[in-house]
């Protein structure tokens, strides 16, 4: 009996030590800064974690490209951090904590455009499905608040319109649309003529299966 108890204590101590070592390793990893151009298993793990939270990165591939930069900027906006697209310690900690926006729409399909935090949120059945980085209208050319519906789109590619050059726009109010822009066209602040900008890759995703459809509600707040 005495010998068995001693064995149990030894195993418990070893398990505790292993757990402590794992926790230290995690903290050390989360302090590593990842930035555009970074590659490897840490980037892949970050991409998978972002995807699990709904932040769209495209296909996780271990390369910190434009899609990952957009997703990181989106989580920074939701967490109230500096919007630089670089996954530093504070940003990685927010991702690890599972920071994500809450849906205002409680049922059905909807697109929420959060003007304060500058993100587009796709909601289905009251649950956040996808979060995208966006840049909406400036103070001089604001994005109109209200509740609308996707009523038409232009899926053939680029279109020149009164509000600018738009990639595959989905219109929700007159000439206002969610549309793609070239890389670099989505800063951390409102910069558009009133539309909601997303990346061209994200816009292709929104045109795909399960994306935005005519009749989907759009809530701008």
Automatic annotation (TrEMBL):
Listed A to Z, the keywords are:
Cell shape, Cell wall biogenesis/degradation, Peptidoglycan synthesis, Transferase
- What is its pathway? Cell wall biogenesis; peptidoglycan biosynthesis
Family matches, as CDD domains: YkuD_like (cd16913)
Q: Name one GO cellular component term.
A: extracellular region
The record's annotation in InterPro entries points to:
LD-transpeptidase, LD_TPept_cat_dom, Peptidoglycan-bd-like, PGBD-like_sf, PGBDSf, Transpep_catalytic_dom
Q: Which SUPFAM superfamilies match?
A: L,D-transpeptidase catalytic domain-like (SSF141523), PGBD-like (SSF47090)
Organism for this UniProt entry: Mobilicoccus pelagius NBRC 104925
Enumerate the Pfam families for this protein: PG_binding_1 (PF01471), YkuD (PF03734)
* Protein name per its UniProtKB record: L,D-TPase catalytic domain-containing protein
GO terms classed as biological process: cell wall organization; peptidoglycan-protein cross-linking; regulation of cell shape
Q: Which GO terms describe its molecular function?
A: peptidoglycan L,D-transpeptidase activity; transferase activity
Q: Which residues form the L,D-TPase catalytic domain?
A: 109-221
Q: Which domain of life is it from?
A: Bacteria
